[in-house]
Amino acid sequence: MTTSPRSSMETHPDIIAMRMRHEMAERATSTPQGQTVGMLAFITGIYLAASPWICGFNGLSTLAVTNLIVGLAYALLMSGGFGRAYERTHSMAWGSCALGVWTIISPWVVAGNVSTTKTIVNNVVVGAVALCLALAASAAARAGEPARARGGLRAGI
Fold it and tell me: Rounded to two decimals, what is the model's pTM?
């Protein structure tokens, strides 16, 4: 009796591993905590993008443009729009951590004299919130991964 190519493909170890990674990402993001982190991160990104106009430092154009671009990028990364596999979800959370750190240091790094009290307070607070939410998303994605895939136990040993 021969097996059809389709049935052998469905039981291929790589296909099974890929399905497991996809299920891990879904489990991490479908919990109420994961959805809350995602929603708060999206709102944080949108606020960061609009913050120059909300806080009134839109005359400092380099920082305003920086916050707009970083805020939109953060909102897109953390909303999960591109994260349909565990590796991408986990990597996007770490990329979002970098965006949070950049938000904190950007008033001192971007060109021009943009380090005023309101820009520093706004960016440090929003950057810290963004960093914490990205770390929470990374931890949630990591928690959805079984211990043996994290390197705790090796399969077959």
Answer: 0.71
> Cα 33 to chain center, whole Å?
14
Spatial distance between the Cα atoms of 116 and 49, rounded to a whole number of angstroms: 18
Strand, coil or helix: what is 65? helix
Provide long-range contacts, Cβ within 8 A and 24+ apart, for 53-59: 55/118, 55/119, 55/122, 56/118, 57/114, 57/116, 57/118, 57/119, 57/122
Q: pLDDT for 2-55, tens place per residue?
A: 555 555 666 767 677 666 655 655 555 567 777 788 889 999 999 999 999 999
**Pure H helices in 79-151:** 86-109, 117-143
Residue position matching structure tokens 């990104």? 45
Side-chain-side CA neighbours of 134 within 13 Å: the count stands at 27
Q: Could you give the angle at the alpha carbon of 91 between the alpha carbons of 122 and 84, nearest 5°?
A: 110
- 130 touches 96 (CB < 8 A): yes
Cβ pair 29, 42 in contact under 8 A: no
CB neighbour list of residue 4: distance below 8 Å, 6 or more residues apart: none
Q: What angle do helix axes 61-78 and 117-143 make, rounded to 10 degrees? A: 20
